[in-house]
Amino acid sequence: MYKSFSMELAGRTLTVDVNRVAKQANGAAFMHYGDTTVLSTATASDKPRDGIDFFPLSVEYEEKLYSVGKIPGGFNKREGKASENAILTSRVIDRPMRPLFPKDYRNDVTLNNMVMSVDPECRPELVAMLGAAIATCISDIPFDGPCAMTQIGMIDGEFIINPSQAQWKQGDLNLTVASTREKVIMIEAGANEIPEAKMIEAIYKAHEVNQEIIKFIDTIVAECGKAKHSYESCAIPEELFAAIKEIVTPEQMEEAVFTDDKQTREENIRQITEKLEEAFADNEEWLAVLGEAVYQYQKKTVRKMILKDHKRPDGREITQIRPLAAEIDLIPRVHGSAMFTRGQTQICNVCTLAPLSEQQKLDGLDENEVSKRYMHHYNFPSYSVGETKPSRGPGRREIGHGALAERALIPVLPSEEEFPYAIRTVSETFESNGSTSMASTCASCMSLMAAGVPIKKMVAGISCGLVTGDSDDDFVLLTDIQGLEDFFGDMDFKVTGTTDGITAIQMDIKIHGLTRPIVEGAIARCREARLFIMDTCMKPAISEPRKEVGKYAPKIDQISIDPQKIGDVVGKQGCVINKIIEETGVKIDISEEGNVAICGTDKDMIEKAKSIIKNIVTDIEPGQVITGKVVRIMPFGAFVELKPKKDGMIHISRLSDKRVEKVEDVVNIGDMVTVKVLDVDKMGKISLSMKPGDLAKKESEN
């Protein structure tokens, strides 16, 4: 018999059903928040996976389109690969939960979250986050929970706890915070230049709400929680560590890892590993875990030197940023390009502009979001870290890094009315040694400015690291962490922003949470560093957006027309608009509001198309002078096409100031002629004149 638990959360009822469905999973929570329904399950294998030195955790967020009453597009009419939103949600669930599993646990664990119904007032991502935590807590899988997650929005300066889909899209803040009983364990944010103090206030507002949720989870675990199962530990034997230290002393390991060159360090460790493999050649058990043992030895060495002596592997000060360099226009013929280098991290970003019709179409659970105008894509080839492996397309890490840099720049982009372009930036990782996503943010910002995108302010990003000791007060914050400090440290705290405030945050940690002094210190350190990067590196390369788009970028002109006349411009089955496109070679986009964007590389052709469209939507009135094509000739006069399917007639007596014997003596079919409208009768018949005297009257009136 199942049990149901409920609590009031942000003015709505959160209900959790246990033992109602999916009983064969190690843990299952059937979640209801408003009308949003998510099934969250946690399952684990009986034995550890052989031959691995990491915890094999998989987090899935499945978007079922029946949850919003949609049938999937495409030929197969079923859900395909995970959407970008699903991947990003899976990462947000993974990041706070992974550190709470035992470090020596090697059993496969899958956390599956299936969205079955969506209430626009209750975001399914939040329900899945809570469901994953609850399913794991009540399961028999070893887990040092509970943890809880809360989302904070902000409209007109007021915080909104767990905002609706509409509030999430419209507000100035998209903040997700995960907490344990005592500490913040994960932060993910997109913000419209929120000041640091306001962001900290929002983070700890969410932390307070999380404590109430954790109390609720405790009641569920008390009644339904299973005893945690025992497992085969994969910890490195202490005897192996002792034997390694006899061969490679701590001083020798310190000398091997403390260098500012990544390749030199890796070569030093390779030589040490070979030396140890020779020494332990007869001990297969030790050889099987030797790589992990050397890794742990490096980690302890680096952490000790940073924490006790404030000595970093590359010799920098705790707050020092690696050497910086920036340049623009290094790639010819593209619409905009920039390269940003920070130590051994190097990103080249290329910007491409296109008509709004080329923006990305979305097929997800949010009915209000059907397209995306700005796209940032991030690529991480193996050569960037000196490795070789085939490219299999972007993985979850690449998608996550791209989304973070994209989120960082959205607040400073011009509106569609100000700049009617679809915008794509692509970050190519040339070299990687720590925080390429923050380098991508800097490179993207400069690339956009080089392309002539009138962004409102410059944006930069930096990552702050952490090494902790035995107590909450024993910690060291590291500005601009490199790869080694990321691998062996406790935190990767990434913050992007302008001079006025934060635009994005992403925090990954490997410990059981951060104290408030650490959070506040990291945010302050990142502000100081990003301002330094902008002033000393980015602004000397390009200080403001170019005044117009580049030579090879498409040019776009906009006009507004009466929405009721859109049909006149389009024509039956698109015949009118297609004819304009054929004549001028431009692309034309028309919105439902009557905004017309004309895109092309030839300014004269853009003007021609613009003139034709204006002619079509302008009512013909007496006194107007119009240029049109002669389409038909009769003995008594010529018919001129003034706009599609709208002709006027020039009587033979109005073809010239002189007597005309034959119409063909003055005009022929296909001629472009300038005429004056003399009259439009009640039946809509239009009388025209080509007499120079009539045309001259119009000119004198003007």
From TrEMBL:
Top EC class of this enzyme: transferase
Cofactor(s) in the UniProt record: Mg(2+)
Catalytic activity entry: RNA(n+1) + phosphate = RNA(n) + a ribonucleoside 5'-diphosphate
UniProt-annotated binding residues for Mg(2+): D486, D492
Keyword line: Cytoplasm, Magnesium, Metal-binding, Nucleotidyltransferase, RNA-binding, Transferase
Subcellular location: Cytoplasm
Domain annotation S1 motif: ranges: 623-691
Main subcellular localisation: cytoplasm
HAMAP family, per the entry: PNPase
Protein's name according to its UniProt entry: Polyribonucleotide nucleotidyltransferase
Species: Ventrimonas faecis
